[in-house]
Design a protein that fits this description.
Blueprint (H helix, E strand, L loop, with lengths): L1 E10 L2 E11 L4 E5 L6 H8 L7 E6 L2 E2 L5 H7 L1 E3 L17 H4 L2 H4 L2 H5 L2 H11 L18 H13 L5 E5 L7 H16 L3 E5 L3 H7 L2 E6 L2 E6 L1 H4 L3 H6 L7
Parallel strand pairs: 3-8, 3-9, 6-7, 7-8
Antiparallel strand pairs: 1-2, 1-4, 4-5, 9-10
Helix pairs in contact: 6-7
Bound molecules: adenosine-5'-triphosphate (ATP).
The site of adenosine-5'-triphosphate (ATP) has 11 residues, from strand 2 and helix 1.
Length: 246
């Protein structure tokens, strides 16, 4: 579904991504891990068109999408969440989904085109764990606890019915219990055919989901493999010196 070939991106003297290649097959879950500043978000930004590579290519389902603008890439079905979420804080939670539901991609789906968008928004929020018959979906986003803000970010991405969903640190700031309740939701989405790329620092939880893991350090890919191979990899252990799960 996604293939990146020799992606390189420099910011001044910093090589944020250096000749990175990997691929994700349909229905797979790929984890991207690495210490702070290792280039994970840069790779997400390169795939989703938020920044352009100095060299290298990005393919989606065999089609070259390198340097296409973000809205075109999202319109094709490659959708991301953001590490720093920015909902419309003054709007009720469910109304935050109205904007993506009016996007060209969402409008291309019959059920979204003809259904009542408020109901669709409430359905999407329920899918990510908002209690439907509670006041929570109707509260302004500013009144939501962080765990719900993260779920709202996930629902915002799901409103585009992605083929590939790229989550940039979806679990950050969440308690173990909150992550435990999100994991089955992600598993279900994946079982229903969604291809997932997850940038994560929460390795233990990520490894429960991931089929394959790419490890970055200083902009370089230092390892790639199944979670059980990655935890045994000497280079990875060194990069994550002190990380409990490794
Ligand atoms: N827009 C930018 N301008 C200048 N330098 C940048 C920019 N974006 C990223 N960098 C630098 O590129 C390197 C990789 O950053 P990136 O955010 O991709 O890392 P990361 O692995 O996602 O980090 P974290 O885990 O802290 O989110 C860092 O040294 C960072 O300071």
């Amino acid at each position: 579904m996604i293939r990146v070939e020799n992606l390189t991106k420099r910011f001044g003297g910093v090589v944020a991504a250096n000749n990175i290649s990997f691929e994700v097959k349909k229905g797979e879950v790929l984890g991207i891990i690495g210490p702070n500043g290792s280039g994970k978000t840069t790779v997400v930004n390169l795939i989703t068109g938020f920044i352009k590579p100095d060299s290298g290519k990005v393919f989606f389902a065999g089609k070259d999408i390198t340097s296409k603008p973000p809205h075109e890439i999202a319109n094709l079905g490659v959708v991301r969440t953001f590490q720093n979420v920015r909902p419309f804080y003054n709007l009720p939670a469910y109304k935050n989904l109205i904007i993506p539901l009016y996007s060209p991609r969402a409008k291309s789906f019959e059920e979204f085109k003809h259904g009542d968008r408020d109901h669709i928004a409430l359905d999407l929020l329920e899918e990510v764990g908002f209690e439907r018959d509670s006041p929570i979906p109707y509260k302004p986003a500013s009144a939501l606890p962080h765990g719900y803000i993260k779920r709202l970010e996930l629902a915002r991405a799901l409103a585009l019915k992605p083929e590939v969903l790229i989550c940039d640190e979806l679990f950050s700031g969440l308690s173990q219990a909150e992550i435990a309740s999100l994991l089955p939701i992600l598993e279900k989405l994946n079982e229903n055919g969604l291809t997932l790329i997850m940038v994560e620092h929460r390795l233990k939880e990520l490894f429960e989901l991931a089929d394959k893991v790419v490890v970055l350090e200083y902009g370089e890919k230092i390892a790639e493999g199944k979670p059980e191979e990655i935890v045994e990899d000497e280079k990875v252990k060194e990069a994550f010196l002190g990380a409990e799960v490794i």
